[in-house]
Design goal:
With 184 residues, the chain is of the alpha+beta class. It is 18% helix and 38% strand. It folds into two domains: 41 residues, no CATH class; 133 residues, Nucleoside Triphosphate Pyrophosphohydrolase (Alpha-Beta Complex), CATH 3.90.79. It holds the Pfam family NUDIX.
């Protein structure tokens, strides 16, 4: 049972510097054995939660779909299509929205096959990437990048797996998992 004098808890993705309710500078308070961000004016603890994100390995035989987007976190790096889920989206809905925005391709949610969950622990937030696979033949639409300066293309799996400087190791691991699953 919770004591009447216990603080309320607010879930946040990034630890705040100021209370979003009253503007007071956030301090820390011990809660469940650890220092936790806390607003002394509101007696409000901030429970930092991981952000939900989604990615998809779209494969077409011996090729995989990758993006080269002109955005700071991915500049010069080939990445899998995907992004952050909105607060009111389920993972498949978010993934299909991101896939269409970034590549021009659409698909039916029933054609997505769950692959794995990857946790990226960044300096300011933890992100859980729910990763799916999708056959190219299950998509509709024409490939086109979201950004004029970007590219979206199917690339040979062997070439992608042998890259050392233009793709993330975590993407390599998930591409390998997808290839292994669909070879069996």
């Amino acid at each position: 049972m919770v004591a009447d004098d216990s603080p309320d808890i607010e879930s946040v993705a990034v630890e705040p510097d100021y209370c979003p309710k009253c503007g007071t500078a956030v301090e820390t308070n011990e809660f469940e054995g650890r220092e936790t961000p806390w607003c002394p004016a509101c007696d409000l603890l901030f429970s930092q939660n991981a952000v939900a994100a989604v990615q998809v390995v779209v494969h077409d035989g011996e090729r995989v779909l990758l993006l080269d987007e002109p955005i700071p976190q991915s500049e010069g790096i080939l990445t899998l299509p995907g992004g952050y889920a909105k607060y009111d989206e389920g993972p498949k809905e978010a993934l299909l929205r991101e896939l269409e925005e970034e590549t021009g391709l659409s698909a039916d949610p029933s054609d997505l096959e769950y692959l794995t969950t990857y946790h990226a622990d960044l300096s300011v937030v933890g992100i859980y990437f729910l990763t799916y696979t999708l056959e190219r033949s299950a998509t509709a639409g024409e490939l086109h990048p979201q950004f004029e300066e970007g590219t979206v293309a199917f690339r040979p799996v062997e070439e992608v797996l042998s890259m050392t400087d233009r793709r993330r190791d975590s993407d390599r691991e998930r591409i390998e998992m997808a290839v292994e699953r669909h070879v069996e």
